[in-house]
Amino acid sequence: MAALLVLPAVAAYAWGEKVWGGLAPAWPGGGYGFAATVGAMVPLALAALIAPLTRMDWRRSKARTLGWAAAALPGLVWGEAIAVVIAGVMRPKHRRDWDSACYAEGGTCWIHVRYPFIWAAGLVTTLTMSAILVVLIVKYVVKDDTADGESDDAPSPAAT
């Protein structure tokens, strides 16, 4: 479990400058567009992880449950990849660690100088995509309930 937390930090150290220094400026919309894309993918990755896990039922079938757990692995990998990209934009905690390498092209300090509100682009799109997913899930659940004949307008058996 600790490896799931340490892996993004180690990978961000190795690839963070390449992603934010090379890929982000070339992305449509620049660094802000890249941050918005990453922010939109966060709720999608969480949904890809959580949706299969909600289908698990150990009492009914252990094999099917293991299949649903395996189906959640792509969401886990996708979430870890997004965590690597997000960790690549984190500045060092202490200012004394903000050396020339931090301000080199693609370094975390360089990112914050070039795109000062990059956090806002990612946060806004994360919240927007989360709201869209909630609305879609609610519509799906309501549609599913009415298809089963559980409408609120139907009279109860005791009323007849």
Q: How does this model look, in words?
A:
This protein has 160 residues and is mostly helical. Helices cover 71% and strands 0% of the residues. The protein is built from five helices and no strands. The protein has helices at 2-26, 30-54, 62-87, 108-114, 118-147. The mean pLDDT is 81.
Record keyword descriptors for this entry.
single chain; 160 residues; mainly alpha; 5 helices; elongated
In short:
71% of the residues lie in helices and 0% in strands. It has 160 residues and is mostly helical.
Which structural class do the helices and strands define? mainly alpha
The ordered string of helix (H) and strand (E) elements is: HHHHH
Low-confidence parts: none
Shape descriptor:
elongated
Q: Percentage of helical residues?
A: over 70%
Range of strand content? under 5%
The biggest beta sheet is recorded as: none
Tally of separate helices: 5
How far apart, in Å, are the first and last alpha carbons? 56 Å
Number of strands: 0
Q: Supply Rg.
A: 22 Å
Mean pLDDT over all positions: 81
Secondary structure layout:
Blueprint: H1 2-26, H2 30-54, H3 62-87, H4 108-114, H5 118-147
